[in-house]
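#structure-requests
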Amino acid sequence: MLKQFSALITRRLSSFHNDSIFQVQPSVLQALAETRPVVALESTIITHGMPYPHNLSTAREVEAIVMAQDATPATVGVIKGRVHIGLSAEELDFLARCDNSVKISRRDLPYVVSQGLSGGTTVSATMIAAQRAGISVFVTGGIGGVHRDGENSLDISADLTELGRTPIAVVSAGIKSILDIGRTLEFLETQGVCVATYGPSKDFPAFFSPLSGFTSPYQVSDPDKAAQLIESALTLSVNNGVLIAVPIPQEHAAAGQQIEQAIQTAIAEASGQRITGRDVTPFILQRVNELTQGKSLQANIALIHNNAKIGSQIACALSKRMKKRKSSSVAHHPSKQSESDIVVIGGINVDFIAKGKTKSLLFGQTNPGSVSQSYGGVGRNIADCLSRLGHQPMFISVTGADSHSDAVFNYCKHMNTSGVMRLEGQSTATYCAVITENGELSLGLGDMDIHQQITEQYVSQFEKQLLSSTLVCLDGNIPTSTIKYVCSVAKEHNINVWYEPTDSEKASKPFLSDAWKSLSYASPNLAELCTMNKTLGLQTPDVLPNSLEQVLSLAVDLSRPLLEHLHCLVVTLGENGVLVCGEHHAGSVNLKLRKQKKTGKLCAVHYPALSVAAHETMNVSGAGDSFAGALIAGIIQGRDTDACVRMGLLAARLSLTSPHPIAPVLTTHSVDPDCIQNHSWPKPAFMWVA
């Protein structure tokens, strides 16, 4: 069993690495998945800060200090064009010995990656990588700042602007006195960066000295107070960094004072020799090392060790607070932690629906209409629909930790949201649809970036639930690597997978590899079905037909090659209904859960849509998801094909006439064909048997 688990972990990590420029070390991934403390570390101190072998030994010592505080170190560096978040012993050694390494700031990242180069990441580049991985605490020696005479030269470190736009807590020893500390603090204020000194006073440290002559706006006395500050910044989603300035330890203060005197001497010498521009800093550092007879290097190492210890303690305190917040967010679902026969993985959105009051909308001016707010997202909608139809699917997703997510969780109390993670510093997805008076979509806008955080690593935490499920439903908004991972698990354990493509572009995701062969069901529209075929290199028309006869004929032709592996395709055709394609059984398409490969003939059956008057249409964003959710419910219940499809059509009609994507009035009774009296059902028509 242990070997199988290790193999699964290895396969998932390999898939993640191959799909991204960013490579996260396994130990870091595991810690992040378990909400354990992780500390990011920069690597320019390895490549440009110290000579070999001092650089390597210092890097190892710093990582050891982090681990001694029960945190996981994640040293960031770029190796052959890939950004590594966490370095192995071999990779650390490679960077320490690398003769042609690049000093990599935000500006340099695109070029270094494109050219496959290697180098050490500065504060700004490390912040980018750490934030991408979900790490909240970053430890360094000191940050850059505004250089002396910066008001004329405009020589201002990218570290400062990065702190102004990336929500990471940076723990440093302040700023070196070779810089203009006063102007640096002013610039940080302009960037909206919260600065606090760690310890009993507000005195802002100057790297080698605990006193710079300036004060921080704020002060935090211990790790928990620092963690509380960071948590508040992340919760507010202000998207700025936090700078925690740690004074040099008292036992090194005397040496630090001597170094500061040497710095002032070196600055005077540079001015006297008229050394300017980029030559100033290297000259000063070299002279300080000479004047202090190497004591500056020793103090530098001591500073970094101290910062690593305190930064790790802060990361541990923050982790405890985050775990407490996470546990409290699911405390109202204690009975919903049990295994479910359905798992839905996908997005949550806050939807804003703007409906015009005229037949056509005029762009560039204000149109009369109404605006309503609801809660959507393909994955959320399907899970909502299933929850209202007597099932309790486990829903796996991600939201921000903001007011929108509070509203979503409150609205979704009837659902099992124990698999939904709130991410600090992220925004809950939002979607705005502008529709005409008759319900046609005129324009849609979406802020869906957070869906990329529904990663393979996060979903793998729920592998037990995946293995015990009867069916897994995948929303096309989730990352390709996550889809690939779920399909690999499904293939190995014979689990049925339903793929719900959300648009023509995302329809291709499973078909970029052999992952699609592990799908059991998919419900594309005609354009999405074309994309699936095109992705596999199959011929598709440039222009879609208009007549129903031609549409159905094309849908059959495009479905045929996919059914070599898929169990069933449900092609949605809008006002023209749906075309169900799959194995012929008992006079219809076999929709029952697949237990083995198809052995019989294939067929297609067309079901006309249920009519809805234009003036009754209130919302077009959830009809397809309502159809899919109700159809899945019918399949799980073992109903025949006609009953399953009719359940879906009834749910879709309820959605169209509701202000919500999933109608609150949706119940098992409201979509049960046997309970709908005096209803004339459109007759299904066979299109193809082969």
